[in-house]
Amino acid sequence: MFTHKLNWLNAGNKTANLQMECLQALPSTFPGEEIIALEVGSAYGGGAEMMGKLIQGIGKVYAYDTFVGHPKDLADSPDDPEALCMELWYKEPHHGLNKLSYEYQRIILDEQGLDNVFLVKGRIHEHSFDDIERVHFAMLDLDLVKSTQIAYEALKDKIVKGGYLFIHDAVPKDNLVHLNKYVYDEIVPNKRWEVFGAFPNNFVLVLQRV
Q1: CA atoms within 13 A on the CB side of 130
Q2: Is the model's pTM score more than 0.85?
Q3: Residue-wise over 107-124: b if at least 16 C-beta within 10 A, else e?
Q4: Could you give the CA distance from residue 27 to residue 35 in angstroms, rounded to a whole number?
Q5: Which residues on neighbouring strands pair with residue 121, listed in sequence order?
Q6: What CATH number belongs to 14-209?
Q7: H-type alpha helices, 102-200
Q8: Residue 2 confidence (pLDDT) above 80
């Protein structure tokens, strides 16, 4: 696995391994094509950093985040798990709040020459991906059903056949119940997707465009 200087909440678990396996398969699936990978809800940036290293020279990574913290006001209530899911990381000294910032992450990426990683600051909205025509890999890790709905609707027709859509925290069912219901009621039944794998122990559902 690539070493990473930015914090990566999924580092060392199966989600990280699956991301890398799927990304590594893309160049042979799409020979000669520039690979476009998105991390929507990139938090501390380690996942985007890894992807940037993995496809440097053959692709670009776009990392979307507020870079100031979880927009908990979008949850159904202040005490909903969707609102509180990042609090533990923010209180943990190794992660905290300072390492979330755009400026901090941009400096670390630039020090490594990762000019193929683009940080996009702000809340997700219906036009967030207007400048991107084709997507080969997307990780939705927003923790909020409202934000996930917006991101999915804006992205669903841009992901190419054979491309991957990772939805973090969609499983297990009792993790973020609103998100699980939305994903399994609205996304999974859509015939554009095949379930590549559901991994409850690692909180990720992987879909592939067919």
Answers
A1: 5
A2: yes
A3: ebbeebebebbbbbeeeb
A4: 7
A5: 65
A6: 3.40.50.150
A7: 102-111, 145-155, 177-182
A8: no
